[in-house]
From TrEMBL:
Belongs to the short-chain dehydrogenases/reductases (SDR) family. This is SDR family NAD(P)-dependent oxidoreductase. It comes from the Bacteria. Keywords: Oxidoreductase. GO terms for molecular function: oxidoreductase activity. It holds the Pfam family adh_short. The keyword Phosphoprotein does not apply. One of its GO terms (cellular component) is membrane.
Length: 252
């Protein structure tokens, strides 16, 4: 039975992805900070033999614990899903919170990717969850968008480095989803136009399909998001940024 570890897996996209993979008879290890949510998540998964690990990925010692786990136990797939962000104009937000966003979205992801790939075998896969904002700009969420640009570039480079070893690396880039991420970031899904939103189930379904297909280094989720990025090619940069600024909760 193939084993998959997912970070940020107690709710939202991470949990929905776990449910789909469990239904396909994968064995899941879920990682998050909240033990009660993790226990509840595990009980809702199809099949047996699933595990959870309580870890705060803002802490290097917790990241290192997962790295030790990768040395002791083989996982066929790592999905780096944990992430955070803040909505608001750059200097209106606390700097330490934005630095924390940078560490979790980039530093922790790099550390976990390194630990996983050091022990990866032929046929394994690493999935780094980015965002459609990796391929646009986002006034009112400048640091968050910047971290996701890093994730996209980093993942594509790793895809090339490891493809000859038959280790698949994918940067998966969802658009705005109806999840609790937006509440944690200081807004709500109601701040976005309905037409740009996807459900967590839709995002998870595309993620699982892309993981099983193993065709592309970069996957943009949702036809609406792909259409928007295509349309931006016909706008000058200032106008494209203006479009994103108008729909950003951080600019309202």
């Amino acid at each position: 039975m193939k084993k998959i570890l997912i970070t940020g897996a107690s709710s939202g996209i991470g949990l929905e992805t776990a449910k789909l993979l469990a239904a396909k008879n994968y064995q899941l290890t879920l990682v998050a900070r909240n033990e009660e949510k993790l226990k509840e998540a595990i009980t809702g998964l199809h099949g047996k033999g699933h595990h959870y690990l309580v870890a705060d990925l803002n802490k290097k010692e917790d990241i290192e614990r997962i790295g030790v786990l990768f040395e002791r136990e083989h996982f066929d797939v790592l999905i780096n899903n944990a992430g955070t962000g803040l909505y608001g104009k750059f200097t209106d937000l606390p700097l330490d919170g934005q630095i924390g966003t940078m560490f979790l979205n980039m530093g922790a992801l790099v550390m976990l990717s390194y630990a996983y790939l050091k022990n990866a075998r032929k046929g394994d896969a690493l999935v780094n969850i980015g965002s459609i904002l990796a391929h646009s700009s986002f006034p009112g969420g400048a640091v968050y968008a910047g971290t996701k640009s890093f994730v996209a570039n980093f993942s594509e480079s790793l895809w090339y480095e490891y493809k000859e070893r038959d280790i698949y690396v994918m940067g998966f880039n969802p658009g705005a989803a109806k999840s609790d991420f937006h509440q944690h970031a200081g807004s709500s899904t109601g701040s976005f136009p309905e037409f740009v939103l996807s459900t967590t189930e839709q995002v998870a379904s595309e993620l699982v399909n892309a993981l099983e297909a193993r065709e592309k280094p970069r996957v943009v989720q949702g036809w609406k998001n792909r259409f928007m990025l295509f349309g931006f090619k016909f706008l000058n940069r200032a106008k494209a940024i203006g479009v994103m600024g108008k729909i950003s909760p951080g600019m309202q």
